[in-house]
């Protein structure tokens, strides 16, 4: 990434304590009580979501280049950014998991960008990465769906691969590329909680500003 592009990235210094979206004109006390304008009065199965960079035209190119232009080297760079964010947040967890692709989409793309990021991150922080979740069903491309359609499309899509005892009472860091509505990570978190996972932290590179969402 060139210097000018790097300077156009908006790193998230203060994010919502629930969904991780950048906060504008919100007091810390209000965030702790109710969350931001997006997650206000919403319930999530994960304990906390953290993102590194605000979604904009420049940061969007990073993810699109990785996912659709085969720029897999970007996953290492993204993992380095995530490492620095984790050091600031001071989270403690036992394993790193990643959001899976359906085998049909994986075959078409050739790789899972979330898996590549997670594995680089695991090396950076000396944490074990576990391929623990799979998609039972092929789903539509989520970016084409509205928020409630996303939640419905992902209902009961995921399953655990191995013995549930491995994750029982463990703290998990779940890695993905973008946190938009949280539909994907929340559905996986529901499954993990049912499996006996203790705490679940979501780690993504990008998220949109909380002020881009309307209260419901």
UniProtKB/TrEMBL annotation:
Residues 108-211 form the Phosphoribosyltransferase domain. InterPro entries: ComF/GntX_DNA_util-trans (IPR051910), PRTase-like (IPR029057), PRTase_dom (IPR000836). Pfam families: Pribosyltran. Gene3D superfamilies: 3.40.50.2020. SUPFAM superfamilies: PRTase-like. Transmembrane segments: none annotated. It comes from the Bacteria. Belongs to the ComF/GntX family. PANTHER family: DNA UTILIZATION PROTEIN YHGH (PTHR47505:SF1). This is ComF family protein. It comes from Romboutsia weinsteinii.
